[in-house]
Design the sequence.
């Protein structure tokens, strides 16, 4: 009798207690509404921290000039990188805000953006915190946040980022923003680590060999976006080292040329926008997706 009662009550209990999520509620573990305030908030926090770093005394460049090592880049290369990259971030954030998950054609576009929001936000908060400790000249502590940011961005690009849909503005922007974050993260990792633990030291033979091998291997696995960032990193390092160690600077410049050649040869031989084995997927999407 009790079994029959339970059988009769179960559907009613389930109907009352279980409510399916609305299609606009979640994507990739984060709600759309949460993503739409978390991402821009992290951007503003990072932007405010950058202003603090530039306007305070001593400022971020003063700290840079006092703490040099074999991976110290030309600081203006970093500023020159982040200005256009922040404009791309704003375009990406605009689409995050503008796209409506209730519209089927736009929901797929939004999902691609929301998937990156947790990593993007962690990165911005790490960079903002790094700035505080960098300007306090606690380079050992600032290095912790550099490691977290760099590894999280590289993890997303390597393990989580889906193939680019070249017909999707959201997909293209997500690839550019995430890969440029990861690309400059490589430079941050090398720079902060060297000044935190090897201040005023020259590059050893082991450092030179590992740098060439590391960038060479990374270049063979890179597309135009991330590969271009690796070349930019090496140029920034070569220029930064020119006044400290001309021999090491020339080596870094040679690495930059070699890295550029590898990236170009790899991507020209197998164009990344074509072929089933490429890192990109050129698929048709609803016209609505590109009208937003």
Sequence:
């Amino acid at each position: 009798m009790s079994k029959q009662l339970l059988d009769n009550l179960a559907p009613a209990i389930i109907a009352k207690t279980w409510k399916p999520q609305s299609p606009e509620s979640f994507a990739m573990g984060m709600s759309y509404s949460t993503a739409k305030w978390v991402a821009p908030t992290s951007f503003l926090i990072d932007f405010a921290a950058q202003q603090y770093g530039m306007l305070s005394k001593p400022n971020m460049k003063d700290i840079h000039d006092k703490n040099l090592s074999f991976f110290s880049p030309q600081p203006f290369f970093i500023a020159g990188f982040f200005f256009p990259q922040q404009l791309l971030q704003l375009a990406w954030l605009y689409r995050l805000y503008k796209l409506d998950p209730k519209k089927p054609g736009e929901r797929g576009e939004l999902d691609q953006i929301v998937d990156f929001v947790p990593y993007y936000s962690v990165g911005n908060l790490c960079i903002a915190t790094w700035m505080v400790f960098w300007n306090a000249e606690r380079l050992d502590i600032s290095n912790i946040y550099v490691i977290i940011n760099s590894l999280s961005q590289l993890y997303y690009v390597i393990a989580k980022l889906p193939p680019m849909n070249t017909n999707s503005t959201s997909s293209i922007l997500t690839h550019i923003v995430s890969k440029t974050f990861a690309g400059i993260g490589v430079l941050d990792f090398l720079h902060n680590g060297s000044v935190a633990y090897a201040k005023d030291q020259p590059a050893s033979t082991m450092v030179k060999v590992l740098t060439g091998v590391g960038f060479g291997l990374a270049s063979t696995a890179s597309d135009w976006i991330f590969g271009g960032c690796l070349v930019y990193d090496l140029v920034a390092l070569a220029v930064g080292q020119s006044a400290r160690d001309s021999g090491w600077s020339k080596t870094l410049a040679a690495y930059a040329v070699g890295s550029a050649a590898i990236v170009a040869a790899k991507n020209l031989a197998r164009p990344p926008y074509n072929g089933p084995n490429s890192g990109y997927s050129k698929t048709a999407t609803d016209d609505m997706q590109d009208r937003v």
